[in-house]
Amino acid sequence: MSAAEPRAEQSGAMAIPTVTLHTSESEGTEQADPRANEVVFDLQDVSVAYFGRVAVEGVSLEVHRHGITALIGPSGCGKSTLLRIVAGLDTPTGGEVRLDGQTVRRPGADRGMVFQSYTLFPWLTVVENICFGLREKGMPQARQAEMAAHYVDKVGLRGFERHYPKMLSGGMQQRTAIARALANEPRILLLDEPFGALDNQTRALMQELLLSIWESERKTVLFVTHDIEEAIFMANRVLVMSARPGRIKAEVAVPLGHPRHYTVKTSPEFSALKAQLTEQIRVEALKAA
Question: What percent of the chain shows pLDDT beyond 70?
């Protein structure tokens, strides 16, 4: 199935048609990635039940190399649960997650995770937090310092290398967390509402920062968010989940070009996508209520 086609809800309901969009002018400047359709990991009929209640039911999806896939849906639909299963932090009740054809059973260095809550080690400085995984892998100190300096620059923290988390703003703490995840050079970056605790202005700046990093490094990203605008701005495709038990209700492509400037949020194409996804989420939120 093409990412541009709507996917019907896995329970058999009819999918809501996608809006036909025009691509942005900048898209023509992009070079096609010959491996863009390569599947990095996939979920096969994944279900999760807690204490006899089904939280996620029969989710199957594929995530392709170098793309950003956003997962949205009403509260309690199982978005974060799916992310944790991909990370190897939780185990599905049924089905499986496969990375390069191998079943995921535990966390691994090939997957980097950034959480909504600030998960830095408070007794370590910015540089020490970034180097934590590198040190655990036994990387030589000179190489650790080189990697840390590279990602300090990437996330705009030069001058704060020796600061401790308590000395940083929320946005700066998340910059450090993102740098720590990227420094381990994971194949897949998993983001669970990473900007949810930030104020609107800081959140917008962090979206632009992360997107610019992706545009230069092209990591494979699975991004969970409640924010529809954030999903559209960040992602190449958006997966909409139904109310509990969570299923994939629809798959919507985001054909907006790169580099993607924040002003795209005021474009007719962006507004059309936002209206479409808002209606889909509203329907599911009413069911959940």
Answer: 88
